[in-house]
Amino acid sequence: MKTILILATLVAILYSKTYKMEASSTGSLIARLIKANLYHKYLEERNLRRSQILKKGSQPIMDYYDDFYTGNVTVGTPGQTFALVLDTGSSNLWLIDDSCDTEACDGYLGSVYTRRKFNATASSTFYTVNGTITIQYGSGWCDGQLAVDTVSFADLTIEQQEFLDAEDIADIFGYMPFDGIFGLAWPAISVGNVTPPMQNLLPSLDAPLFTVWLDRKLNVSMGGSGGLITYGAIDTTNCDLNVTYVPLTSETYWQFSIDGFSVGSFSEINTEDVISDTGTSWIGGPSYIMDAVVDQTDAQYNWEYGIYTVDCSTMMDQPDLQFTINGVTYNITSEEYILDLELGGGQVSAPSITQNFAPV
């Protein structure tokens, strides 16, 4: 049975409309970097960035480990189209200004992605506002000028959306196959007191919610259809009609309580807060939980690639990950949480888990 998580906002409805936005999968970043012989350099920069953040660590951080789900968003008049990460783990919208000519802004050749940058002077509706900001993520940062322009997507238009017109970005973003980020979380974690796009959407929606359906592909691809976000309605085509609601524990991230977790013979019954983050495609948790997953799947750590691997032949036979939320248990089968990265040597699959995930 397919299950669904509804992200609902508690704001009044003014108009009756529903919008659908296709999501594209960029494929596996790890697979791209391995093939381009850039993965070790990427790991070095990622680990350096993490160590710097641990020393500063004052802003909310969101980490992007591997796969990205993007949607086409048009900005400006006439419109310029960008592939932006649809991210429920952050709240700001940002693009790369075309004045930035660093390798990171242009995109490294090994990333196999042609980056698009925003030409502010070509838009008749663009204007800047007072202030520059820096947005900090677990894997990097971006900074630049706060600006306002027309933003369109999914047959919807926001006439005056505030966003970051980034004039500089972290080197590690040069490897990542996107043009910016479209934040869908709450205003509390928006940098610069910017009103997030979702809050500006509410007056145009039939219902104050949006549905995220991510279409998991068994084999890692280098792009293609990745799912659908439906604004203002439940996606009855791709998702179960049985909807279970759970209250948020904090209006920051999409954060709620989980009652328990089990995998194989391991079981943990304890109430903890978790977040649903479409910008982070790996499952993260406390080290003892991740150790249990490693133990129950008989995964081995691959020092060359910095990931856990299992034998390819066991990919479809690993135990389910079971999450209990508000009294309902949701099963994630092994074909959903193990990725085939084609590493060779019979160890071609990696459990998509990490012990280093934690909003700060």
UniProtKB/TrEMBL annotation:
<dbReference type="InterPro" id="IPR034164">
    <property type="entry name" value="Pepsin-like_dom"/>
</dbReference>
<feature type="domain" description="Peptidase A1">
    <location>
        <begin position="69"/>
        <end position="360"/>
    </location>
</feature>
<protein>
    <submittedName>
        <fullName>Peptidase A1 domain-containing protein</fullName>
    </submittedName>
</protein>
<dbReference type="GO" id="GO:0005764">
    <property type="term" value="C:lysosome"/>
</dbReference>
<feature type="active site">
    <location>
        <position position="87"/>
    </location>
</feature>
<feature type="signal peptide">
    <location>
        <begin position="1"/>
        <end position="23"/>
    </location>
</feature>
<feature type="active site">
    <location>
        <position position="277"/>
    </location>
</feature>
<comment type="similarity">
    <text>Belongs to the peptidase A1 family.</text>
</comment>
<dbReference type="InterPro" id="IPR033121">
    <property type="entry name" value="PEPTIDASE_A1"/>
</dbReference>
<keyword id="KW-0732">Signal</keyword>
<keyword id="KW-0378">Hydrolase</keyword>
<dbReference type="InterPro" id="IPR021109">
    <property type="entry name" value="Peptidase_aspartic_dom_sf"/>
</dbReference>
<dbReference type="Pfam" id="PF00026">
    <property type="entry name" value="Asp"/>
</dbReference>
<keyword id="KW-0645">Protease</keyword>
<keyword id="KW-0064">Aspartyl protease</keyword>
<dbReference type="GO" id="GO:0006508">
    <property type="term" value="P:proteolysis"/>
</dbReference>
<dbReference type="InterPro" id="IPR001461">
    <property type="entry name" value="Aspartic_peptidase_A1"/>
</dbReference>
<dbReference type="InterPro" id="IPR001969">
    <property type="entry name" value="Aspartic_peptidase_AS"/>
</dbReference>
<dbReference type="GO" id="GO:0004190">
    <property type="term" value="F:aspartic-type endopeptidase activity"/>
</dbReference>
